[in-house]
Specification:
By secondary structure, the protein is an alpha+beta fold. It is 30% helix and 27% strand. It contains 2 helices and 8 strands, in the order αβαβββββββ. A 4-stranded mixed sheet has the order 1-2-3-4. A hairpin with a 5-residue loop joins β3 and β4. The radius of gyration is 32 Å and the shape is rod-shaped. The chain starts with a helix and ends in a 5-residue tail after the last strand. Keywords: Signal.
């Protein structure tokens, strides 16, 4: 009779021991005594000095620069008239796509479109615009 009684209540004892252990761990985690003392707020660090344009010619050097400089870096080798590709400090990349032409090729580089009108050889033309129009 005693053996049947012990077998019947053994799962209840195990369950109550588990509940007590979980409750003890929860209380220990959230008790004020276990928390580290609050430190005084450190003064905000000044923003980094401007290190020039955040541009690199290829994806690998842009990834390294973004990680080191902790800022977004443009991959100029992937630049087009209507897109810009950036590498973020966390290693992801972002493609900014524009609905129209944002820049045009001039020589070996790019120039932002500037529709300001200027006189050129007796004609009125935009400063920088696509020649396809």
């Amino acid at each position: 009779m005693v053996a049947a009684f012990v077998r019947r209540f053994r799962p209840l004892r195990v369950l109550s021991a588990l509940v007590a252990a979980v409750l003890a761990m929860t209380l220990a985690e959230f008790s004020p005594a276990s928390r580290a003392p609050a430190r005084a707020a450190s003064p905000a660090s000044p923003p980094p000095a401007d290190a020039g344009p955040a541009e690199r010619p290829d994806m690998v050097s842009a990834q390294v620069a973004a990680w080191v400089e902790k800022r977004r870096v443009e991959v100029t080798g992937l630049r087009t008239e209507s897109t810009s590709t950036f590498v973020n400090p966390d290693g992801t990349s972002t493609l900014d796509a524009y609905s129209g032409i944002r820049r045009v090729r001039q020589g070996d580089g790019w120039a932002d479109v500037d529709t300001t009108l200027v006189v050129d050889g007796g004609r009125v033309v935009p400063k920088v615009a696509s020649r396809s129009g």
